Every structure is written in C-alpha cells, then in structure tokens.
C-alpha cells in the first residue's frame, strides 16, 4: 500500500518536472535538497535532469548530488551505483577521482567491505595518480580495516619519533 502511494508521488513529481529547462530542473533539485523533508523531490528533479539532459555539462554533478542524497538516506549501494555511473558515463568530466574516492570510502566506512575498499583506493592511485585524492588514497590504503584508535596511535608515534 505504502509503496503504491510512494510510487504515485514519485510519478507525479517527475511528471511535474516536464516543462522545466535543464537549468530550472537542476536549480529545483538543489533547492529541494536543502530541506530533509523534500529529499524525494530533490531526487526526482536530479533524476529527471540526468534522464532528459545526459549530455549537459552538469549531468555528472547531478549524479554526484543523487549519490549524496542516497548516502544521506542510508542507501549506500545506490550511492555507489551513482558514483559508478559518473565513472562509466562521464569519466573525462573531472569528477572521476572524487567518485572513485567516495566509492572506496563508502565500502570502507559504511558497508565494511574492506577488500572492495582497498581495490577502489588502489584504482584512484592507478587512474588519477596526480590527484590530491590519490595522495589521500595512498595514505588510507594501508590502514583500511584497522581500528581507528590504533591508526591514530600509530600516526602519533610516527610524528613524535621524527
């Protein structure tokens, strides 16, 4: 019952986006994303934006916003899927290193799949070696799965011995 109601609302929201330009859709998504009560509306606007304007320069940014909204709602695999779309569909957009980093972070911190986190961090290092996030990945990779308190102690000892 609730799924049917939710589906009806989503259809109405997407249908309501019909006459909007790309910029209007994106702006409406940004405005709705500010209020936790209208996250579903924001999601609908950004989805409509990407579906209707896949070649628009802001399409990868809309996918990033969809990923962030999914994360906020605890839908981590969905967030990974959106970041994966950035990598697959918009690899040359300048958002690839951030998308790959977020995939690694979600696997490590939210899903607890350390093997996938390590692979994702390594991919940043391999594919975006000059990125600042690659430098972060080099630092994080050997510590994936370690207890954060042990990691801080290790860093403190390393700093104090130099």
Could you walk me through the main structural features you see in this protein, from its secondary elements to its overall organization?
The protein has 162 residues and is an all-alpha fold. It folds into two domains: 1-56, no CATH class; 80-162. Helix content is 75%, strand content 0%. It contains nine helices and no strands. It has helices spanning 2-16, 22-33, 39-52, 59-72, 76-89, 96-111, 114-127, 132-140, 148-160. α6 packs antiparallel against α7. The longest helix is centred in the middle third of the chain and has 16 residues, at 96-111. The N and C termini lie far apart (63 Å).
Q: Runs with pLDDT <50, length 5+?
A: 4-17
- Through-space gap between termini: 63 Å
Q: Quick one: how many beta strands?
A: 0
How many distinct domains?
2
The secondary structure category is: mainly alpha
Quote the average pLDDT: 87
Figure out the total of helices.
Answer: 9
List the helices and strands and how they pair.
Layout: H1 2-16, H2 22-33, H3 39-52, H4 59-72, H5 76-89, H6 96-111, H7 114-127, H8 132-140, H9 148-160
Helix pairs in contact: 2-3, 3-4, 4-5, 5-6, 6-7, 7-8
């Amino acid at each position: 019952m609730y799924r049917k109601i939710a589906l009806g609302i989503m259809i109405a929201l997407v249908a309501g986006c019909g006459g909007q330009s790309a910029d209007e859709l994106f702006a409406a998504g940004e405005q709705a994303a500010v209020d936790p009560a209208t996250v579903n509306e924001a999601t609908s606007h950004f989805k409509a934006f990407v579906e209707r304007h896949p070649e628009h320069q802001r399409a990868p940014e809309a996918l990033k916003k969809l990923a962030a909204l999914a994360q906020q709602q605890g839908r981590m695999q969905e967030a990974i899927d959106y970041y994966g779309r950035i990598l697959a569909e918009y690899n040359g957009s300048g958002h690839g290193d951030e998308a790959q980093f977020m995939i690694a972070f979600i696997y490590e911190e939210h899903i607890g799949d350390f093997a996938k986190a390590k692979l994702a961090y390594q991919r940043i290092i391999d594919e975006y070696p000059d990125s600042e996030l690659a430098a972060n990945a080099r630092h994080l990779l050997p510590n994936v799965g370690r207890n954060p308190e042990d990691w801080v102690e290790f860093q403190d000892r390393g700093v104090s011995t130099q």
